[in-house]
Amino acid sequence: MLIRFNPSLIIAGTDEAGRGCLAGPVTAAAVILDGHTEYEQLNDSKKLSVGLRNMIRPLIEQHAICYSVAHLHPETIDEINILNASIEAMHHALSDLKQNPEKILVDGNRFKPYGAVPYECVIKGDGKYLSIAAASVLAKTYRDAYMEKIHEEYPMYNWKKNKGYPTAEHREAIKKYGVSPYHRKSFQLLPKQLKLEL
Description:
Elements (H helix, E strand, L loop, with lengths): L10 E7 L8 E7 L17 H14 L2 E7 L1 H7 L1 H14 L7 E5 L11 E4 L7 H22 L7 H4 L5 H10 L21
Parallel strand pairs: 1-4, 4-5
Antiparallel strand pairs: 1-2, 2-3
Helix pairs in contact: 1-4, 2-3
């Protein structure tokens, strides 16, 4: 059973998706939920089927006080590294919220101060707090939709299926076709024994 944090505070939950991918953006979402809507099936997005995620997303968007989603693209990931890019994407999402939070709940164990707003890092927070779970669903569904869109441009990598994650099929396509503009050049795109001309 996921719980709400302190209902007397304006809480923003934030989470990211796509951190371990070889291609595409890291995508973060921030959500401030209202204090009374029930989300019976809401959970960590990784524990939900694609159908459930896509069913819950419009409910979150309809009932949340506000929400925001931000993509940070491979060139930035390569420049500042994936951890910093993940945190920066969360900061972008928070800054686009229509209401300022009084506290931020962050999934994971690493974050950087966002102005003077107090924050709490919660390991596996997307399975503990509603606002983080809502952010995880938005980040995942928006990123998946982005990957399906760029799949049309580069179908050989099959991003509509693997979403940029390092599957055997994805690595085989990189080996065969080389890298696309959407690949993260700072990541180990192929096993060490295989050389890749960048």
